[in-house]
Design brief:
It is a single chain. 28% of the residues lie in helices and 36% in strands. By secondary structure, it is of the alpha+beta class. The strands form 2 sheets. It has a 4-stranded antiparallel sheet with strand order 2-3-1-4, covered by helices on one side. Strands 6-7-5-8 form a 4-stranded antiparallel sheet. It is flat.
Length: 187
């Protein structure tokens, strides 16, 4: 991308960028093992997200590989950690244009939260509504808490397409409140 990478002090060219996807049962040391392999090979972490659901670990890491390293070499280097922690690890190419800084900025993101009784289909309804507006869900969290009755919390970050205003979408999202018996917060 040509900008100076503030984490490594190197200039990035935007090429040789991959996404490393890690899935498996949560255990201490998974992140240390994966990042050790990346560090030892001078691969630069550009962005990452990780979560634990139940006892399952899921991690996505956008990595800029050194110019002389192939995706296949990284896959081989990760084999030891993969076996040690019984992980599924996938490495896929990321095109430089997919890393556009203007799409990542929080200023263009909206936050939507639904809170109330747990209802099957509510996540799909919100996701379908966002898709109908060509809006991208960049983060989704769902949690069911309590018992008798179950209370559901759905929170998401949404990146709208250029030109779509919050005022256009808000009334449609708010219609879901009475339909599912939930409180809707949009901002």
């Amino acid at each position: 991308m040509g900008e100076r990478d503030s984490f490594s002090g190197r200039s990035g060219s935007g090429d040789n960028i991959v996404c490393v996807t890690v899935l498996g049962r949560d255990r201490p040391g998974i992140i240390a093992g994966i990042t050790r392999v990346l560090h030892e090979r001078a691969a630069n972490i550009r962005e990452s997200a990780m979560t634990i659901l139940g006892h399952q670990c899921a991690m996505l890491i956008i990595v800029q590989l050194p110019r002389n390293m192939s995706m296949t070499e990284l896959e081989r280097a990760l084999e030891g950690v993969k076996k040690q922690y019984e992980l599924s690890v996938f490495v896929t190419r990321v095109a430089a244009h997919e890393l556009s800084a203007e799409d990542i900025g929080p200023a263009r993101n909206w936050s939507i939260t639904l809170y109330g009784g747990d209802h099957p289909g509510i996540v799909h309804e919100v996701a379908q509504l966002m898709a109908s507006f060509d809006a991208t869900i960049t983060e989704l969290k769902v949690r069911v808490v309590g018992r008798d009755p179950d209370i559901g919390i759905v929170s998401m970050r949404v990146r709208p397409p250029r030109g779509l205003s919050m005022e256009r979408v808000r009334p449609e999202v708010e219609k879901l409140g009475p339909r599912f018996g939930v409180e809707v917060r949009f901002g």
